[in-house]
């Protein structure tokens, strides 16, 4: 079983990823979608956290090169960035969505010096907005960042294009097509609902309207 299959089983069994084509979820954007991801549920078992950090460490060795600092997006990226930083023996920082309104007014918490090579950890990439915001903040502070790792990505083309525009690569352990393949093999949904999920993936932002939700 490969890495994405193992993570699929973990995510589906823990409830970190839920599939419900018949009773879709409402995302923060307001769109109704047949899938919901909450990777915080993967924090519940040490074996899950260890597995994710092992894969990230493997990706880092294969793709990134020199890493001086591990960064996590606030809040869901922080625990996985922490586990990876501990595993690699690296300093840890985290990046808020916006600057604090009090104290030092920081957006980045922790030690970051100009010219340091930073690896960003995000838990989920949908359209990529929060991760790209963190990349821009790190670069504004003088950090060098060319890679972002995430646990799960829907694989929307908009996200890939946005990362290309800022010259930053993102690497994900699990994508939606891989998840759907595992869900089908586990027989957790009937065939018509699996097909509905395939249709959603082709036009995710029109799916609910076309289904009459």
Describe it for me?
The structure is a single chain. With 213 residues, the protein is α/β, with parallel strands linked by helices. It has one domain (3-206): Rossmann fold (3-Layer(aba) Sandwich). It is built from eight helices and ten strands. Strand 5 (69-73), helix 3 and strand 6 form a beta-alpha-beta unit. Helix 2 crosses helix 3 and helix 6 packs antiparallel against helix 7 (191-202). It starts with a helix and ends with a helix.
How big is the Rg? 18 Å
**Major sheet size, sense and barrel closure:** 6 strands, mixed
SS element count, helices: 8
Could you tell me the CATH topology label.
Answer: Rossmann fold
Architecture in CATH?
3-Layer(aba) Sandwich
User: Which stretches are low in confidence, meaning pLDDT under 50 for 5 or more residues running?
Assistant: none
Pairing-aware structural class of the strands and helices? Answer: alpha/beta
Q: What is the number of domains?
A: 1
Features:
213 residues; alpha/beta; Rossmann fold
Record the SSE blueprint:
Layout: H1 3-14, E1 17-19, E2 25-26, E3 32-33, E4 35-37, H2 46-64, E5 69-73, H3 78-88, E6 92-95, E7 108-109, E8 117-125, H4 129-140, E9 144-153, H5 157-165, E10 169-175, H6 176-186, H7 191-202, H8 207-211
Parallel strand pairs: 5-6, 5-8, 8-9, 9-10
Antiparallel strand pairs: 1-4, 2-3, 6-7
Helix pairs in contact: 1-6, 2-3, 6-7
């Amino acid at each position: 079983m490969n890495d994405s299959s193992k993570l699929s089983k973990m995510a589906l069994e823990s409830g970190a990823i839920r599939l419900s084509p018949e009773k879709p979820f409402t995302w923060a954007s307001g769109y109704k979608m047949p899938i919901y991801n909450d990777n915080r549920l993967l924090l519940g078992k040490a074996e899950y956290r260890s597995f994710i950090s092992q894969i990230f460490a493997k990706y880092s060795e294969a793709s990134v090169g020199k890493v001086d600092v591990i960064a996590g997006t606030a809040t869901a990226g922080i625990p996985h960035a922490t586990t990876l930083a501990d595993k690699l023996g690296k300093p840890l920082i985290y990046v808020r969505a916006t600057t604090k309104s009090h104290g030092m007014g920081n957006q980045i918490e922790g030690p970051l010096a100009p010219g340091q090579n930073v690896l960003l950890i995000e838990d989920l990439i949908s359209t990529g907005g929060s991760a790209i915001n963190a990349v821009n903040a790190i670069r504004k502070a003088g950090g060098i960042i060319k890679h972002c790792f995430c646990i799960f990505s829907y694989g929307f083309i908009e996200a890939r294009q946005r990362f290309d525009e800022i010259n930053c690569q993102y690497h994900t352990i699990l994508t939606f097509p891989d998840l759907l393949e595992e869900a089908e093999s586990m027989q957790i949904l009937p065939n018509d609902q699996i097909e509905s999920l395939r249709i959603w993936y082709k036009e995710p932002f029109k799916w609910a309207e076309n289904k009459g939700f």
